[in-house]
Amino acid sequence: WGILFSHPRDFTPVCTTELGRAAKLASEFSKRNVKMIALSIDSVQDHLCWSKVRGVGRREGGLVLLPCSEDQRENPHRTEAVGQTSSAQPLTLSPCVQVFVFGPDKKLKLSILYPATTGRNFDEILRVVDSLQLTAYKKVATPVDWKPGDSVMVVPTLPDEEAKKLFPKGVFTKDLPSGKKYLRYTPQP
């Protein structure tokens, strides 16, 4: 499993707090066999200076900063307004930053866009990883506000008889006004 998350530049306040939080949670992600990579256009030297200031991004914490480009003069990630060569702005200073989660099959499992002004919630990203891993290996789905240890939903494609065999702790159907029996829950396997 892998997580790739972008940040616009080193020494930006929101991203500094995010990388600090990611570094603090690195052992939790590692327990789940998840590797994290932060992506930025800044140079390796900038990353090293930044990591010394905040104590973020150190390899031993499980977090690696990966630069896109080190040449700030010829950076392909910069754009210029027509006729204004002095106002170059990195494209990554756009109004959003991304998080991508990849499974062991190297396929994208989750993509989230956050406004650059809003810090990412790494507890939520960890919760989603728990859900993705659980649902990848068991025939379940996770309901709204699910947390590890909560009951899960049996996937609707699983016949009742097979569900009873797969989930020995029981399958419980929620009564609905329509009378339909598709909301089936079971304790988390």
Automatic annotation (TrEMBL):
Organism this protein belongs to: Tyto alba (Barn owl)
Domain spans labelled Thioredoxin: 1-134
Domain of life of the organism encoding this protein: Eukaryota
Catalytic residue list: C15
Keywords of this entry: Antioxidant, Oxidoreductase, Peroxidase
GO cellular component: cytosol; mitochondrion
Entry keyword annotation includes Glycosyltransferase: no
Protein's name according to its UniProt entry: Peroxiredoxin-6
Biological process terms in GO annotation: cell redox homeostasis
